[in-house]
Amino acid sequence: MTAIGTDIRMLLFPRFCKVCGNKLGKSEDxxxxxCLRQLPMTHYDxxxxxxxxxxxxxxxxxxHASAFYFYTHGNKYTSLITQSKYSDKPEIGQYLGRxxxxxxxxxxxxxxxxxxxxxxxxRWRRWKRGYNQSEWIARGLxxxxxxxxxxxxxxxxxxxxxxxxxxxxxxxxNVQGIFAVRHPERLAGRHVLxxxxxxxTGATLMSCAETLSNAVPDIRISxxxxxxxxxx
Length: 232
Hints:
Elements: H1 3-12, H2 33-37, E1 62-72, H3 78-86, H4 90-106, E2 115-118, H5 123-129, H6 133-145, E3 154-156, H7 168-174, E4 179-181, E5 191-199, H8 203-215, E6 220-230
Parallel strand pairs: 1-6, 2-5, 5-6
Antiparallel strand pairs: 3-4
């Protein structure tokens, strides 16, 4: 498209920042430059024992874990997760996955990783939503890291209730036995990166990691979430 064509398209179909609502410029995509500069990034990835990794201390299969930015109730950046998850805008997650991967590469986060595995949804929830938001985040990561995406091996075999308003103990009980591995032999000796949208207590991700480790004893696991929830 020519520059004139782009100008006309932007005039007729203006795009707006998913955070502040201001009109986006030609070189901006989903989020304006001002909001990007203010994105509350964690900078956890260079830290061996960062707050995300602390959820998995004592579980030797998990070698590293990180999150891209902080998720705090009432913060304007929480809408990025809710829009990508519930408003039929999964491309936001893919875009943020690419941004996150560009940062993660600087610390060597992807070194040694063989494939990316998004946390799977139940068939009912995927049908209702139309997509898996974690898979779209993983797509963005995979594009930049140039790693394969595996979506048909780790599966969710039980539909569990949403955990939004559950206590920590209720969350742990809610995720017991909900995942399974279809082809463990394909993951033997591999280093996989589990990808999710938000980590709160770490219950779902630990359930994924335990399922993979039980099925594939020599597997190595890293974990990435787009956001890390913080207390109000």
